[in-house]
């Protein structure tokens, strides 16, 4: 028996033991319920109160938060009550209960985003199992996070069911205020989505029109001179006979950060229109324009022994990442019959990013030796996914079939220049905490350039067969990828280096319904990822391949809004990209990595405004065969740096009931623990463990008088005990944000 087969056996055995431990109770809940006697709709709990009905951070869209324009792939979660979602199409591109999907998945609902007042996608994922969202400390430049130890930034982020490719600095930033929900699907998903991270994907659902009038305005202020205004309004269009609705969402922020000279400014506006000419046809137009400014560098100089000093790398005269982006797309669904549905999701996006940064390489006596870089990255891409879903019955077996063809093309261009700059004079500096410097920094000439284009066509087919208590999911996909790369100078690019890849990926999963609410499962899936970008010599990277075995148990307590899940997994991936330890602006390819461990999650809604989410992850992430970049030194068997082995997170809220003297008051708090990890891939020094606490206090003024209905004041505090911490990854160290407080005045109608 192979080692991986043995591990699969261990996973299945642990699943069986966990199932046996709770099966007697579950069986008493109705083991005689047949699979064909339940449905997604029947399994959904009652909807949460609409906006203004009661208190709490409810979704202003009203209802259960299901403002999706389409019901299948790309449409977003449904069956939402507070923090709990029962259905998400991300795992199967069909409306399948999360309990019946053969992979681990979590949903972050709009109410949770509201309660925690998240300011980035990293913050949105901070209480989700399997996610490492604090690897790079405080970094407002990117949504940079890991799932099961694998980087997601360039290949693992999807929006409305479509991949959002990113290369180097040209990575789309997502304003969380414009998000309806996030679904985190862990493990390889190439069988449905093609190119992607072996750790999984994060599918972000945009806010979409709903056919009821609503509105919200917010004014926020916080430390570091943070000021922000948000608005979200929508309504059916008068005179359209209920066939047309619009939504307009926007945010404006002007803010400093604790990084000296670092800004975190943003303007975003996202108009959307839904046209529903009949009950069978829905068309939603989704658009957005965004302009943002962030620091050019987020790291601090690393002293010997991998200690993050307080000497900030950035120079106020040359320290900015300016990004401008726009996107336009649509989601179309047409039901030929209730059992035959066609969908098409489309998006075009363009991103233009200009980076100016400085980097401290060493400190000698009272002088810091530095270099700088200027980079202009841009990417434009088009993505489309065509799906046909069919339902049929053959004897005792019920089939849900979905087949499709998707296409993605991107064009990427980089112009860059690097150089040495005058030393930084540290004479007389006694405290780097208060040290702010602005020196003359000459802008380097843009002397190098690279272009890359990629075409990907995927054809996929999935069968979900239900027989008695079994749900068998079979997914297969054939991808054809061509990539062309040229490099040289801005005025003279060399000949194109091309590569063409064709690969079949798939997934097989089996769920067994001990009861409709207690479901053990096991699955095997493969992944394939052509790597975006180029190395320092302008060469494209070798594609990465991998596979995973996973087994687990999912449970929903009948008659409640309480769900839980545990999962064990083992992933192997080849050709992993790493940050170049000699130049933070470049990446290099390393060897194979194995990620194995287990996760546990519990999510609950006890009453309107009262919720709880718990998440635990144990992760063992190691190189199987690799050498340290730039050397021949083996790091096989070493732990991958910067990724904690154990994480725990819990966040809960309590809304005082209407009969309480404290009615209208909502309180909440959270704890985030990250275990130790190594600072570099040579495993020389460990990062410290980190525990942080967050808090929420909010008050709905309708408790004072009904005429104040819709008015809410909210205070969110992050890292409330001001834990001073840092994390080093691949030899670079990043400091975490100090205590941060944001106050909000909100009016909803």
Low-confidence stretches: 5-55, 62-68
Q: In this structure, how is the largest beta sheet organized?
A: 22 strands, antiparallel, barrel
Shape: globular
**Residues in β-strands, percent:** over 45%
Number of helices: 5
For the termini, the CA-CA separation is: 63 Å
- Care to count the β-strands? 41
Secondary-structure-derived class: mainly beta
Rg, Cα atoms, Å: 25 Å
Overall helicity: under 10%
Provide the residue-averaged pLDDT. 86
Membrane topology: Multi-pass membrane protein
Organism: Methylobacterium brachiatum
Pfam families: Plug, TonB_dep_Rec_b-barrel
Subcellular location: Cell outer membrane
Q: What's the helix and strand layout?
A:
Blueprint: H1 3-27, H2 40-43, E1 78-81, E2 84-87, E3 105-108, H3 110-116, H4 121-124, E4 131-132, E5 146-147, E6 150-151, E7 157-159, E8 162-163, E9 179-186, H5 190-193, E10 200-206, E11 214-222, E12 226-236, E13 244-254, E14 265-278, E15 281-294, E16 300-303, E17 307-312, E18 320-337, E19 340-364, E20 367-394, E21 397-425, E22 448-467, E23 470-489, E24 492-493, E25 497-512, E26 518-529, E27 544-556, E28 561-573, E29 577-579, E30 587-589, E31 592-607, E32 610-625, E33 646-655, E34 665-674, E35 677-678, E36 686-687, E37 690-700, E38 711-718, E39 726-729, E40 732-735, E41 740-748
Parallel strand pairs: 7-10
Antiparallel strand pairs: 1-2, 3-9, 4-5, 5-6, 7-8, 9-10, 11-12, 11-41, 12-13, 13-14, 14-15, 15-18, 16-17, 18-19, 19-20, 20-21, 21-22, 22-23, 23-24, 23-25, 25-26, 26-27, 27-28, 28-31, 29-30, 31-32, 32-33, 33-34, 34-37, 35-36, 37-38, 38-41, 39-40
């Amino acid at each position: 028996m192979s080692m991986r087969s043995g591990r699969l056996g261990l996973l299945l055995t642990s699943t069986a033991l966990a199932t046996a431990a709770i099966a007697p109770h579950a069986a008493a809940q109705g083991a005689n319920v047949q699979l064909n006697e339940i449905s997604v709709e029947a399994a959904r709990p009652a909807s949460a109160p609409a906006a203004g009905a009661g208190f709490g951070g409810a979704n202003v869209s009203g209802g259960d938060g299901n403002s999706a324009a389409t019901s299948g792939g790309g449409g977003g979660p449904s069956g939402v009550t507070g923090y709990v979602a029962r259905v998400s199409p991300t795992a199967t591109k069909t409306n399948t209960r999360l309990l019946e999907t053969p992979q681990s998945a979590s949903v972050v609902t709009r109410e949770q985003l509201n309660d925690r007042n998240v300011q980035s996608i990293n913050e949105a994922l901070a209480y989700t199992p399997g996610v490492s969202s604090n690897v790079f400390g405080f970094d407002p430049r990117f949504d940079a996070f890991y799932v099961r130890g694998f980087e997601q930034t360039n290949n693992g982020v999807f929006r409305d069911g479509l991949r959002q490719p990113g290369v180097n600095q040209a990575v789309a930033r997502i304003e969380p205020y414009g998000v309806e929900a996030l679904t985190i699907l862990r493990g390889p998903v190439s069988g449905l989505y093609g190119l992607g991270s072996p750790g999984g994907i994060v599918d972000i659902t945009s806010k979409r029109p709903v056919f009821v009038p609503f509105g919200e305005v917010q004014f926020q202020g916080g430390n570091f001179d943070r000021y922000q205004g948000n608005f979200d309004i929508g309504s059916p269009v008068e005179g359209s006979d209920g066939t047309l609705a619009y939504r307009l969402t926007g945010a404006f922020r002007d803010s400093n950060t604790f990084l000296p000279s670092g800004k975190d400014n943003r303007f975003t506006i996202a108009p959307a229109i839904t046209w529903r000419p009949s009950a069978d046809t829905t068309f939603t137009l989704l658009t957005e324009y965004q302009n943002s400014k962030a620091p050019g560098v987020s790291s601090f100089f690393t002293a010997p022994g991998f200690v993050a000093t307080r000497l900030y790398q950035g120079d106020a005269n040359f320290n900015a990442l300016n990004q401008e982006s726009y996107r336009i797309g649509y989601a179309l669904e047409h039901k030929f019959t209730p059992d035959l549905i066609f969908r098409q999701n489309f998006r075009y996006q363009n991103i233009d990013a200009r980076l100016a940064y400085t980097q401290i390489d060493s400190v000698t006596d009272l002088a810091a030796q530095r270099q700088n870089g200027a980079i202009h990255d841009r990417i434009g891409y088009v993505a489309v996914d065509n799906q046909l879903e069919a339902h049929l019955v053959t004897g005792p077996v019920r089939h849900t079939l979905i087949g499709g063809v998707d296409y993605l093309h991107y064009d990427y261009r980089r112009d860059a220049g690097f150089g040495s700059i005058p030393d930084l004079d540290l004479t007389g500096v006694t405290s780097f905490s208060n040290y702010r410097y602005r020196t003359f920094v000459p802008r380097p000439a843009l002397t190098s350039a690279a272009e890359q284009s990629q075409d990907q066509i995927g054809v996929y087919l999935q069968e979900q067969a239900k027989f008695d208590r079994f749900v068998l999911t079979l997914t297969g996909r054939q991808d054809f990828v061509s990539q062309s790369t040229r490099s040289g100078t801005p005025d003279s690019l060399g000949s194109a280096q091309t590569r063409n890849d064709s690969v079949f990926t798939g997934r097989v999963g089996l769920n067994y319904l001990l009861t409709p609410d207690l479901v053990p499962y096991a699955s095997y899936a493969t992944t394939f990822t052509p790597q975006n970008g180029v190395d320092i010599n302008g060469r494209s990277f070798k594609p990465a391949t991998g596979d995973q075995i996973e087994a687990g148990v999912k449970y929903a307590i009948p008659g409640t809004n309480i769900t839980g899940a545990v999962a064990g997994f083992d992933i192997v991936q080849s050709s992993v990209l790493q940050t170049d330890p000699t130049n933070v602006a470049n990446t290099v390819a390393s060897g194979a990595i194995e990620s194995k461990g287990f996760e546990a999650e519990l999510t609950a809604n006890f009453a309107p405004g009262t919720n709880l989410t718990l998440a635990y992850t144990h992760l063992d992430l190691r190189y199987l065969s690799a050498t340290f970049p730039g050397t021949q030194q083996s790091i096989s068997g070493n732990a991958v740096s910067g990724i904690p082995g154990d994480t725990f997170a819990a966040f809960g809220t309590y809304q005082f009931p209407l009969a309480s003297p404290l009615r209208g008051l909502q309180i909440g708090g959270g704890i985030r623990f990250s275990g130790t990890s190594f600072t570099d891939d040579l495993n020389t020094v460990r990062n410290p463990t980190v525990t942080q606490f967050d808090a929420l206090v909010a008050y709905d003024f309708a408790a004072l008088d009904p005429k104040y209905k819709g008015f809410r004041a909210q205070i969110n505090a992050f890292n409330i005990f001001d834990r001073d911490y840092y994390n080093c990854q691949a030899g670079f160290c990043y400091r975490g944000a100090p205590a941060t407080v944001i106050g909000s005045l909100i009016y909803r109608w």
